[in-house]
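Can't paste images in this forum, so I'm doing it all in text. The chain is below; anyone willing to post the predicted structure tokens underneath?
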Amino acid sequence: MKQWIGFNMLWMFSRGRFDTEGNPLINIEKRELDFIAKYGFTFIRLPLDYRFWVRDFQYFKVDEAMLEEVDRCVEAVVSRGLHCSLNLHRAPGYCINGNHLEKHNLWLDTEAQDAFVHQWELFARRYQSYSPDELSFDLLNEPPNIGQYGLSRENHKALMERTVAAIRAIDSDRPLILDGLGGGNIAMPELTHLGVIHSGRGYQPMALTHYQASWWEDSKHLPYPVYPGTEYEGRRWTKETLYTHYAPWREVESQGVSVHIGEFGCYNKIDNELALRWFRDILSVFREFGWGYALWNFRGDFGIVDHGRPGTRWETIDGFRVDRELFELIKP
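Text version of the structure:
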């Protein structure tokens, strides 16, 4: 696998962000893609919300106009020589954010499982003309913890095996990616036989990277973090703790699995120098392991552009207000 280093682009990751009854206008930030390609990045992950093209849980009735918006996103990425990874961030029956909005349960209900497989069969047919170097499928963003919403290693394994087989029956060469359990953090030795890429996360310790994140309930009442040394989940987090955290992923990798970090980053409520200390350590770990990575996101609270962390040394580069130190750290 060519090393993929880049960003998550959030153009279609949440239908709920658009306050409109009809089809929303998708704004593809082509200048951002030009910047990303110019400076040697190779990878764009596109988290998608199936509700853009499916209405009222009628899973097998799709809005062609909105699928054409997905087409535009893919082509904008690929035409710049960047690899595009399509990801279902919200799938029929599951999303890590606002799961209660779903009618069915992906882990327990046949309706959702059939719909999930159908979505990927649809994409497999639609994008068959793209080469493996141009396009991959990241099947499901951040499955829940074991026991949460009824997920078990067994029913997750069965669904992923079924979906991989369905895609390969249509397009046997498409690179496929499976996110780790527990929000992308838990390795999956039970799925080493599938010949797919395993995708981890780079958000540990959450007490630092998600300090005062309003959407994360556990962030309430956390003390201001330090690094190295933040206490979280019974550990004192340092570079050595990061090695320990990724040890199960290294074990999976030793069985012939490629590992990629599909998301990583730090929210903007801490001082930038504190964030940079953590970034230096986690990126040095990824590089030592030879793992590619994708920052969440390019512009915004977790990005390299306009993230808003206090104490940042900003520099205007090609018209963007860039955190120069973070930019230099993450560049390939």
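The chain has one domain: 5-202+258-330. Residues 229 and 237 are 5 Å apart (CA to CA).
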